[in-house]
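Sample A.
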Amino acid sequence: MDETLDRIHRHVEEIIGRVGSHGMDHTERVVSLCRIIGEKEGADLRILLPAAVLHDIARPREKETGLPHESEGARMAADYLNAIGYDAALIPAIAAAIRSHRFSTGDEPEGLEAKILSDADKLDAMGATGIARTFLRAGEHGGGIDDAVFHFHDKLLKLADRMYTGTGRQIAAERHAVLVSFLGALEREREIRRD
């Protein structure tokens, strides 16, 4: 499976690129989190890991066309996996996991692998990594600190309560504490500026 996963990885990297708030570095962290959570929770890694590698494959297409990356990504992933001869019995579960991974859709993941992918993707938006990605994202959208702070309140501080697995909840508790601590320090420093 590692050889096939490497092939999928190369394919995705060609499409989404290496860097950015949703670049291949994000994908690799999600894959790592999926592996950790999946092994502890007893997931089928033949479903989970390809779904993790492919979960943001349609991000560039969403930017160009406005099509939601989760639904378009599920379609693209299924087409690609069929084209490379991946086990056809596993492809629907992979596509379903990709379709339901996004925080903002409200589409509830069904099945353990889908729940783990959703948890892992949210976990990468938390903790020190999440803080770094938030400011990177703000810059990508032409924003600054105020935009990043809004994103903390609009999304990041809500993520710990949206975990599906026990392992995800444990990791989220630690990362949520980092977010709260950082945001408190940032807001105190910004108050000094306003005085």
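Sample B.
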Amino acid sequence: MKKLALILVLLLLATPFASADPLEYLGLDPAGSYDLGGNTVTIISWAGARMEQYFDSFIPVIGRIEEAEELFNCKIEFMQTSNVPRLNQIRVMAGDSAYDLWHVQNKIGYFELVSAGAALPMGDLLPAEYYENLPPTLRMTEDALKFGGKYYGIGTMDHNPTYGFQNDLIFVAYNKTLLEREGIEDIHELYLNDEWTWDKVTEIGRKVTRDIDGDGEIDQYGISDVRPWDLAIANDAALTKLDADGRVVYAGDEPAYIEAINQYLDWWHNDQIAFPTRNNQDSLSKFVNGEAAFFFYVPVFRLPDLMEQMSDEWGFVPFPKGPNADDYRYPSQALSTTLVPVNAAQPEALVALRAFLWQEEDITRNIVLANVAPNRESAQVFMEAHEYWNGSASRLFEIPTWDATSVINYEILEGEIGPTAGMAKVRPVIQANLDELLGQ
């Protein structure tokens, strides 16, 4: 596996991704060249209030809103709503969205708005260097979210000091204190030696899962909160794929995906090394309390909280490799971007405004790693994840697939139907939903 040397990572910690002018570097005119005519730009997001707080509290961007309002001759307002994409569509129909910027995700509004023709295909309007020079993981996001072969998104709008990094990549946390007490080898070393695999998790899980206090009940587990759709990514599988004609097709009944479900069932039922609950908070508490060796659902946005909650020594690594994968994979629980409405009065000026408000130079590696990495080994993993993430999202098309898969996953877990038969059963409804949403 390709890896960054740890010494290189540490030397680069304080270096921002880019050093050029934030607008000209992206092929746009310099700040001060755009005039929005005194209009109010409305930034719409489910996290609008937190975005506003970000600009009021994060030192590198304090005063940025006022500066942008003067340079672009506009007013900026944040609108928080849970009614995305319906509100956005209403604003287009009413003619109120000419100066909107829409914060969306693959599972919150993106595909609905794009497929309905409510957003502009910005790849047709912007210079090629715009997408070429986005922060690498943001460019990867836009590649993953292409619709009909076109770019629609223009980069995300963060409410955390993580711009340029992925806020939703998922890692596996491990309790170093527990594992050392049980005589288990160092997990980071397993990762470095390409030995961090599903089989190794099974081996370790069997050793550490046991009754600690002698009451006849298991109270220490190997695994907490593993999810089959994330495990599938670690096996180079996904619920959907593109066929030879560029059509999005269901792939949840293919062998590599079924292999992930079977591993999930083995850990849950056969080996009984997974803490038997589907409640995320209970699973988190099990790990935080030092009663589970591995916690399989740690998105980047959760890492700062885990840094405060953990008293045991801990770290994190990528998902262990499945037998179908030749390298480590990094599932993401969401892909975020920004859309420009189809009736935008000045599309390029709105793009430039977003790029001015959120700049790569605002966020150094030191800032991010101080908030998310409990040690140097984890910092190395974090940086390598951002170097090698391939845009994979475990639930890319969540809206047309989630209802059917959540029901069938429960039935499979309860033994009501087998994985192969179960995932084949939902193929027709999921494919029909995909075709309807995407107009294919």
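B remarks: The CA atoms of residues 269 and 413 lie 9 Å apart. The mean pLDDT is 93.
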